[in-house]
Structure formats: structure tokens, C-alpha cells
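Follow-up to my post from last week.
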Amino acid sequence: MEQHISSAFERDLEGIQAQIMKMGGLIEAAIRDAAKSLATHDVELAERVRDGDAAVDALEDMLNDEAARVIALRAPTAIDLRVILSVMRMSANLERIGDLAKNMAKRTGILIEMPEIGGAAKSLRRMSREVEAMLKDALDAHIQRDEALARDVIARDLDVDQLYNTLFRELLTFMLEDPRNITPCMHLHFIAKNIERMGDHVTSIAEQVVFLTSGTRPGDVRAKSDRTSCDPAFSTPVAARDV
Amino acid sequence: MEQHISSAFERDLEGIQAQIMKMGGLIEAAIRDAAKSLATHDVELAERVRDGDAAVDALEDMLNDEAARVIALRAPTAIDLRVILSVMRMSANLERIGDLAKNMAKRTGILIEMPEIGGAAKSLRRMSREVEAMLKDALDAHIQRDEALARDVIARDLDVDQLYNTLFRELLTFMLEDPRNITPCMHLHFIAKNIERMGDHVTSIAEQVVFLTSGTRPGDVRAKSDRTSCDPAFSTPVAARDV
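User reply:
Got it. Predicted complex:
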């Protein structure tokens, strides 16, 4: 990979890479704006996030069509093919993150009608900032073929999971304190879970980068994730204890 | 597509199709067993579902490697390439469904320690049966290139969403009735959401089938889904009203 002879294939691949970076930029903005619309009760911004998702979907379709065209036309070598197939997977992950951001923005209009829940908005903002930074780094790692950075992104997903688990506990406490908190907490929990899933998709992108740069699947480096299904703290019926 | 000359490519493709059907069979069983383990409090069965997921992941890796090999070796035509790329996407959807089934099974051990919540277990069983049937039909539609059946699967996802929305309301009511229900309801809600997401992935498989058989993306036939973010019934703070 030291010497590059710029072939027709490479020019095509550059075009595809440019598209994935464009998609990535839109998705970073969608995460940021969705979180901001929630924090600042900005219904118009939320609306723009929802409307913007169509552009991402269109980009994904274009990227897939273009990738298929390049594969059919250029008959790339096994290694080049691996790059294209990985980029297609990345674009699918980005598209899913966009859906999740849209879903998040949808709840802005609902939550402003409800009582505010302690520091939940702040926690959500922190989670989404972390995911946004991870996404930026994952895409940088892809372009710069930086395996170490990609592995760093994978490791940071544990922080997001940790933030999620902490918030889940907090929400439970608020629900127990006052039944009027139950409905807003359910919505906030949805949002938290959405951000946590965005983190999983970013991790999946970073895993593709590790696979492309090292040839091995990171597989088991990625411990998992949503601890509410196995942490004993969540298995004791807190409600029975506290109320 | 009337006359088939059995080429090396077609034999390879058949191998890949056989693998996807094998994956599909494992996933159908995983959905069924995960739901059964919840309904019958069968912790050992839940354990088997969790352990079985590794086999699905391995099949997906194999399928991707094989698909990449076939593309590189046979340089398929644009149409044949589209089939392979679609099958790769389907396998990614199946893998995600497997993860969701595993996640669902993980909660069996927790829920048996908690108070039972009305008809929730029954509703979950019904949802998961519907998703399992949809998956079976989506895979049949793929093998038989049956566009009508694939479109039928896409339409049926709305029933799953409806079941989910109803259950969401029920869970809110139970939480308001007795705070001791909050923790189990949060877990049940996770499970319901997981099944609803399985339905989305099955729909995505069916959409691939429509794309392959008709050449067009079904796109907007698929209304969306989780109504708790836009249904006015969920936007009024029920808690404030009822308690």
C-alpha cells in the first residue's frame, strides 16, 4: 500500500469514500442537533433533524448503487473488494444512526409538555456528545487507516454504556419518587437507549476499520454493553425496596 | 431469468442461499426459544439461546467471506451481483435479530424473580410468534422470489407495531397502579421493544426481496412504526391524570 498507482478503481473508490464522509458529516450534525433540540426545547430544530433524514437515506442508496457499479465494472482484487464491502456496511450503520437521531428528535415536542426530570437532560447531552466524538474519530480512523484510533473508539463505547446504565438507575428512582414522572421517564429512557444503540453502531464502524487495517476481526475486545440485563443491581426489585 | 444454465456462479450462489436459509432457521428457533423461556420461566432454555448466538455470528462471517470470494472469483453480472449484495444485507439483518433474541433471553432469569405483570407475558408471546411467522415468510419469499408474499410481510409489521403500542400503554398503567411494578415493567418494555425491532429487521429483509424481484425499493410502503413518539395518547402525561 506504499506506492499508489492511481487507477480507475482508485478514483472510483475515492468517490465512494467522499460519499461516506459526507454521510458521516450529516449524521454527526443530526446527533448534535437532536440532542440540542431536546436540551433547548427547540421544536423547529427537531423538525429539521426529522426532515434531514431523507437526505441520508438517499446518500446511502446512492453509495450502494455506486459501490455495486464499481464492483461490476472494475472487478476489484480481493483486498479492494473488502474495502468496498466494508464501506457499504459502514454506510448501513450510518443510516441506522440517522434513524435513531430522527427518533430522538421526534420526542422533543412531547417532552417539553412534561415535567423536567432532574439531571436527565444533561446526562443525555453528555452521552450524545460522547457518541458524536466517537463517530468523528471512527471516520477519521477509517480515512487515515488508524487502527489504534479505531480500537480507542471501541473501548470508549464502554463509557457510553456506563452513562446509560447510570441514567437508567436514576430514571427508576425518579419514577418511584413520583408517579407523574413515569411517562416522561419512559420517553427519556427511550432516548437514552437510542443513544446507547448509536454507540453500538459507531463501534461497529470502528470494528470494520480494525478489520480493514489489521485483517482480523476485533471480536472479543468488545465487552457488552447494556448491563441492565445482567447487573444484580437491576435484578432486585428496587421498587419493592424503596417504596 | 427463464432459462437457467447452471454455471459455476450459480452453484456458488446456491451455496450462499443455503447458508442464509440455515441462518434463518437458527434465528427462527432463537426467537421461539427466547419467548418460550420467558413464558415458561425456563432459565436453561434461555441459557441455550444465549450460547447459540455464537453459531449465528460464525455463520454470518462465513457467509460474508464466501460472498466476497464468489464476487472476486466469478466477477458476476450486475444483476447477479445485486443478488449477492442483498443476501449479505439479509445476513446482517438476521445477525441483528439473533442479538435481539439473545438480549431477550438474558432477561428471563431476572423476570422470574419479580411480580408477574397482568397479560404482558401473553402479549409478548403473541408479538414474537408474529415476528417468527413473518421471518419464515420473508425467507420463503426470498427463495421463491415471491414479491407479493414479501409485500405482505412488510404490511404485517404494522400489526407488530400495534401490539407493541398497546403493550406500552398497558405497562404504563401497571406502573402507575403500583410502584413495585416499575422495575419488571421496565424489563418487559425492553423485551417488547426488542421484538418490535426484530420486526423492523424482518421488514428490511422483505424489502430486499421486493427490491430483488421488482427492481424497485419499496420505500414508502413502509409507514412507521413506534407510535409512542407521535401518538397524542402518549404525549399527555398520563401519570398526572391518573394518580
